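Supplementary Text 2. Reproducibility record for the structural model of the 248-residue chain.

All settings were left at their defaults, and a single model was retained for analysis rather than an ensemble. We include the record here because the model underlies the residue-level annotations in Supplementary Table 4.
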Amino acid sequence: MTERSKLYQRVAHQIEQKILEGVYTHGSRLPAERDLAQIFKVSRPTIREAVIALEIRNFVEVRHGSGVYVSGKIPADPPETELNVGAFELIEARLMFEGEAAGLAATVMSDEEIAHIGDILTQMEALDPSSVEELNLDRQFHLAIAEGTQSSIVAQTIEHLWDLRDQSPLCRHMFEQARHEGINPRPHEHRRIYEALQARNGAMARDAMRDHLRRVSEDLLAVTELEMIEKAKLDIMEKRRRLAPERM
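Retained model, structure tokens:
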């Protein structure tokens, strides 16, 4: 691993080494997410990205409602896939760039550009949030705001961030998981951004965009939880099973 490797990659590599060395044995359950975060001294989102990276490479199996288990059969020649960026890292960058872009666009974009964004929003509101068309319009909405800054560099940077969302295997996996759990674009949050642009209020547009992206991050945190309420339900069921003979 190089010094420039991403944090989640370093953590994934360390967990992989522990698996190969037998510290975490085949079929065993990895420590809980919060414990892994303490062991490797990183945030829980970083642990989630590392675990998903290991899952993609077939080193672990995520059993929702139970935990993360070392694969029963470790791949002899694991793929050296460059997983690129994770969704949380991407959203952090989008918060910086798209928040400021919305604030700038509100003050410089033309009436025609604002009307175009309004047309995109109208189409979004008429569609099923889970449809492919809705996802495409979501991208168009954000890129139209980037174009509205009148800066080709800003527009290209934000377009690159959106390309990473689709091209990075890790990032794509996380967003697909979110959609599988019913997390889709929220037109009402986009309308708040649009209304701020329409009002030519840079501060309001910046805040609306940042709030929207923070919500996206919160949604991802929710759907990538490795130990959710389901685990508590399973624990309760297991306790009931153990107690059942005593009642007979």
